[in-house]
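Students often ask why we bother predicting the structure of a whole assembly rather than each chain alone. The short answer is interfaces. A chain on its own may look different once its partners are present, and contacts between molecules only exist in the joint model. In this exercise we take two input lines together and write out one structure for the complete complex. Read the inputs first and try to guess which parts will touch.
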Amino acid sequence: MKVKVEVFLKPGVLDVQGKAIEAALGGLGFKDVADVRVGRVISFDSAAADKAAAEAEARRMADRLLANQVIESYRVEVQ
Amino acid sequence: MKVKVEVFLKPGVLDVQGKAIEAALGGLGFKDVADVRVGRVISFDSAAADKAAAEAEARRMADRLLANQVIESYRVEVQ
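Now the answer. The structure tokens for the assembled complex follow.
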């Protein structure tokens, strides 16, 4: 099944990429945009037995490799 | 309202980050994982009048700034 892990900087950690995009969007005339945050998505096919197993495995992956939990938080979605 | 734009490399474009993560996961013992792809998510607050307007605006942003359409595709989600 398809698994998606979204990794974002924690609230309070300065998101310089987000700030840069917000400024660039403003320069292009997109003014009604606020609080731009940039994260990454890691998507993959899992051969786990069921949804719960796939989600548990994805959380272990995020804890060990995909996210830096000092400054990042993550969200797992199994489809 | 909250808008999320997911940007991924198009199928067929070599995703070196995804390959590196797949290899690293394999090295950590996560063997039942395949087709790892890495993308980015840009999330923001939109002050658009309604969902349709927010989505249309996000598409214009993606076309102009957020995605490189030669090698990337994107998906817009309005919450």
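Check your guess against this: Chain B has one domain: 2-78.
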